[in-house]
Amino acid sequence: MNDIFVLLPPLGHSKFIRCRKMHIKVFKYNHISETDKRLLYDLIYRVWEDTTNLEIHHKDMDATSFCAVEENRFIAYAGVVSWDIRIHGRPFRMCGLSCVCTHPEHRSSGIGSALVKQATEYILRNGTFDVGLFTCSQENTSFYEHIGLWEKAKNLVLMESHRANAYRSDFMHLNVFKLLLSPKAKQYAEYFENSIINLNFPQGRFI
């Protein structure tokens, strides 16, 4: 676990700036404890009002979870999922950010940015991924552009699979971000530009 410190603006007419201490908890989602699952689902509900209690990451995606923890609560989350894809017959090991969210009471505090940076640093150090891919809504695009590290791929389309009514980033008006990691991905960089990539995800899953 890593401690992070976030400076917040003064409250009211105070001349002091509060410094909030929290830590980032990292674990494999497939081995999540019941306590952590309750904390995570409480956060998910507060962000998206999701009451389905479905697993947020498919077990085959071997997600790594990054949680910002303050006073025994999860106040922000980012998952890193992994999956094997094929483009023009060539295999690539992809990863991506998933279910990134911050508790409504803690937004615009730098916590989400710090968490995404830590998750991305993990991806860069991992050494097993070829390419990073994920989508985000139009309103959240500036958040990732401000963080940097990831590149907005204007003409890249991601699709869940070839099934009928599969999720597609262009149909859903989502922006795609990419991160070319391995020499192979950089060699075939054109695959990740003006292309439609079939992720061949399990039904109903997207990134």
UniProtKB/TrEMBL annotation:
InterPro entries cross-referenced by the UniProt entry: Acyl_CoA_acyltransferase, GNAT_dom
Supply the alphabetized keyword list. Transferase
The highest taxon in the source lineage is Bacteria
Show where the N-acetyltransferase domain sits: 27-174
Q: Which GO terms describe its molecular function?
A: acyltransferase activity, transferring groups other than amino-acyl groups
- Matching Gene3D superfamilies: 3.40.630.30
Is Lipid metabolism among this UniProt entry's keywords?
A: no
Please indicate if the UniProt record lists Transferase as a keyword. Answer: yes
- Indicate what this protein is called per its UniProt record: Acetyltransferase (GNAT) family protein
The taxonomic lineage of its organism, from the top, reads: Bacteria, Pseudomonadati, Bacteroidota, Bacteroidia, Bacteroidales
